[in-house]
Every structure is written in C-alpha cells, then in structure tokens.
Amino acid sequence: MATRATLDALNAAIVACRRCPRLVAYREAVARRRKPQFATWTYWGRPVPGVGDARARVLLVGLAPAAHGANRTGRMFTGDGSGDFLTAALYRAGLTSSPLSRSRDDGLRYRGVYLTAAVRCAPPDNKPLPAEFDHCRPYLVAELRALRTVRVIVALGAVAHAAVLRSTAELEWAVPAPRPAFAHGAACTLRRPDGTAVTLLDSYHPSRQNTQTRRLTPAMLDRILRRAAAAAGLSR
Hints:
With 236 residues, this protein is α/β, with parallel strands linked by helices. It has one domain (4-231): 3-Layer(aba) Sandwich (Uracil-DNA Glycosylase, subunit E). Helices cover 38% and strands 12% of the residues. Helix 4 packs across helix 8 (218-231) and helix 5 (130-146) crosses helix 6. The two termini are 22 Å apart. 47% of the residues are buried. The mean pLDDT is 96.
C-alpha cells in the first residue's frame, strides 16, 4: 500500500512543478488579481496536489483546479461550487468527516478515498491544452502506482475518464476491448499487471454547468458514490 511518506514526496514534486509556462502564468496572475470576495485571502497559486487517505480504496479523478477554488485554497475540490457539491455527496456516502470543504486547515478528513485530477494547475477557460495533459500525466501515473489499495476509480467527466485510461495504459493495466466509452453510470473492469481488478466508474463532473442544469443531481451523484463505496468494500 502507499505510505504517507511516498505520497508526501510525490505531492511536494507536484507543488514545485513549472512544466507548463501558460499554466504557471495564469495560476499566478489569478492569485495576484483575486476576486473581490476573496480579497483577504492569500491564494495558493501553485499546482494542487492530491489529497486523502493513503489507504484509499476509492480514487476520484477530476479535470483541473478551479481558478478561485482549489487554486485559491490549495486543496482539490475545495472553495467552489463543485467542491461544495462533491464534498456533501462524499459525506452522505460516509467518505468524509464533514459535508463542508472550505480550506486546507478546516479539519476535513477523508475516509477511504483520495482526490486528484488530470491536470494540477488552473487552466484558462478551464481548458488545458493537450501538451499540458501530457506534462501532468506522470503524476497521475505515479498516484495509481502508489495507491495499491484502490479498487474503484471514479472518473468525474469524460476528460478524467480519458486521462485514467491513458495513465493505466502506461502502467500496462489490462483494459477491455473495445476501449470503454464515457457515460454517466457506466462501469468497466481494469486489471493491474498482478491481476488485481479495479472498477472504473463514470460520473458527470459536478461542475456548476452540470449541477445548475440538473444534468447531475445530488441523487445521481449519491448513487455513483454508494456504488463506488460498496464495490470497494467500504462500510459506513
């Protein structure tokens, strides 16, 4: 299983990353400008590392930090509407200690779950470039290698789904043929080289665009997370 020291070392490398000049310039400019309602905040303004239980059995993969969410707070899915929506659902599934995610030092604890993303810096218009995905992929690959107890991966959106499949291919995991397509609620079985089965479960991303239009409702996300927890052998 992953040790906390292994993940801490990986996260330190992520935070120090400056591989993508466009993303470095954007994340730092946002941190300088800030939103009026966050004028008293000192923005994180750096790549955002993964967070959660080193013995996680469920891994959630998102797209990228929000400019005034995780890029401000320094923690995945913290400080914006997407984070509020997801954290409340994780709490209902018994995977967090609180339904609220406000800051890195708010005392929130993750239970059996680890949160990460395909890209670690906030991108302009929330749209990373192909080269930026490529530069970030080694970090997701390293997390998948380190988190040996993971039995379910929840891909939050089609981009995360594709990132997971590319990363597991680099690790020589077995993937069903034809390659699984993204669909909310779809699931398939991936296999590590040692034969361990890992379920890839898809969900729409909890973005405001999806939640405000009710493309993704709380009940829909609850069903996904309950499925993930059950398949991973986690009990409340």
